[in-house]
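User: Modeling request: complex.
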Amino acid sequence: MGLYRTNGIVLRSIKLSETDKLVTIMTEHFGKVKCVAKGARKIKSRFVGSLEPMSYVYLIYFGKENQQLYSLNHADIIQSFHQVREDFQKIYTGIYLNELVDAMLAEAHEEKQIFQLLLDSLNALQNQSNLETLCRMFEIRLLSLTGHKPELNHCIVCKTDTVNGWVGFSYNRRGIVCGGCMKKTSVEIKFSTGTLNYLRKLLTLNINCSGRLKFPRGMAEEVEKVTHRLILAHVGRELKSYPFIKSMAAIGQRDAGPSVGI
Ligand SMILES: [Zn+2]
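Assistant: Request completed. Predicted assembly structure:
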């Protein structure tokens, strides 16, 4: 029987029984784990407030190594991201990031870089309003950290790093195809080198600065067609929170658009 102490981010918290919760947590040192929080649904629970999705907590849990379920002993809030919880668009974006980590990772593998990516992204979500860039950045970096990084520097056929004008992208082979090779290789989508440069920036820019990278109209959709579709290919289904993000963004755009007098 081991006792584990680590920081973690609550990904999901569901009802297990009248009194208990089942909590999925991305820990800093032990990867993704599932814990039973006994009594967490009682009004006077010792876990009150600390097991909400997105909460960054200090945890103590115990159980046999590599078992499916651990017992949660203690959870102290380090950061609750309350500014994210006050804004619907931010809540759904945060839930989407959590859902992605939950869907893309197996349990019990140490994934310190992914833990840090999620923590940095939740902080960025709290401090800025350019949520679209943050989602795209999170998607492409999560793909990279789980071994599915798209090839954006060289044509996947002839290996040239000189691409001009239009570039193709193959989902199957997960990379760009240059103009010359597009004549003999089928690609699912085509985009400009401008979009390619945005995709490359998503891999290198500091997450805290993601708010400054705004996609020009038209390019946002092209970037999404690469990063989000690659995510779908790996997860095998659409994430539950994603339609909410899209409809919220559409409402935001409509409200920001020109008003028409009657
Ligand atoms: Zn080529």
